[in-house]
Amino acid sequence: MMFSEILKMFKKDPIESTRPIPVYWIETSDSVSRRFEFEADGRLSMKIVDDARPASRRVVESFLNKFFPSGYPYSVNEGYLRYTQFRALQHFTSAALSVLSTQSLLFAAGLRPTPAQATAVSWILKDGMQHVGKLICSNLGARMDSEPKSWRILADVLYDVGAGLEVLSPLCPQLFLEMAGLGNFAKGMAVVAARATRLPIYSSFAKEGNLSDLFAKGEAISTLCNVFGIGVGIQLASTICSSMKGKLIVGPLLSLVHVYCVTEEMRATPVNTLNPQRTAMIVADFLKTGRISSPADLRYREDLLFPGRLIEEAGNVKIGRAIHEVVKPSELHKVKERFPDERFILSCGAKWTDLILERSATGADALRGWLVAAYAADIENSLHMASEHVLEEAFDRMDSVFPSFLLEVGAKGWHTDRFLDGARCRFTL
């Protein structure tokens, strides 16, 4: 071989020499090998090279990726799985019940539809009284911020009341419009309450700023279960519930399961904003044990039916009454001067202590006032001091522990930058 030919063998093509060498690597985890490579335009591409996972595990992981937020379970707060399980069953039963109620409306209107036609009338009836219900319920938004769990349960109860009226409408066809109108009125209020409480509930599970991901995956589960529920509802309407007797048996059962599921969803939800009930529970636990309870600690202890009840261990504090109902005009200046630098007013009564917040008060201010009231009640019960000195002693106790108390409250995940008192009265002086 000639020397010139040997040189040609080692001589590089100038075009090939300027072409960038692909940069790639292979990562293996959980029996899956993935090839990562930077494309010419700088994008990172990924391709599965080898997947040794069993088929069942691949199906489960594919389901989790589609219906659960990225990074689950580490990207969500405690209780999300239980919340999701009952949410799925809730939407399933709700969809099945809606098919039965709509079929009943068609019967009451004098029609004899096939089960597949059972949803047609909803497009006609939902635009009337339902919008009235939505408008009325929209004025209650601040109260829903304060007690999203209770209002979410009420939303589903209202929905079932509306569905129940529709199911019963064939028994009194002469009152068809009244029954259908009231049913859709209740459903309109339910729709607003459910949508308004959705964001604070999802926010309580967002652990890594992944609220949009949580919302999207939650809606995917709801949609899937609604589709299955409608299918089961159509099957029931064709068989067991083709008669009114069958509807009167199956309808209440579906409604009971529906309300039970939404109640369990709400009990599993660790809402981390401060409202009157959760603030009172935090203060009561602190005085009793010296510990700060986290949102997950309190979620199963919240009273979802009567959230406004007084808690004796926290000083029997009643918040947000009108200032003229609590303090006489002649004594207002004196009451405010007890704690001139604070953004709250305390007035101790025989049965409870009134706490009124200034308009700009935050969750930290509410905690300060609540601690003073709780310490005052504890001092009265144990030391029997003169009433005029009780609040002063209670304030000194609160002031000494509050810096470390507030730090621990924040460390447990509570938001203290605002206090959600449900549009109760505040003052400005």
Written as H for each helix and E for each strand, in order along the chain, the element string is: HHEEEHHHHHHHHHEHHEHHEEHHE
The parts where pLDDT drops under 50 for at least 5 residues are: 1-12
Largest sheet: 3 strands, antiparallel
Number of helices: 17
Strand order of the largest sheet: 1-2-3
Give the structural class: mainly alpha
The share of residues in extended strands comes to 5-15%
Topology, number of strands: 8
Radius of gyration: 30 Å
Cα distance spanning the termini: 104 Å
Compute the average pLDDT.
Answer: 82
Instruction: Give the proportion of residues in helices.
Output: 55-70%
Shape: flat
Quick description:
With 429 residues, the chain is mostly helical. It has helices at 3-10, 14-18, 55-67, 80-108, 122-125, 129-137, 141-146, 148-168, 176-205, 211-238, 244-268, 276-289, 295-298, 323-326, 332-337, 363-382, 387-411; strands at 23-29, 32-38, 44-51, 273-274, 317-319, 344-348, 353-357, 415-419.
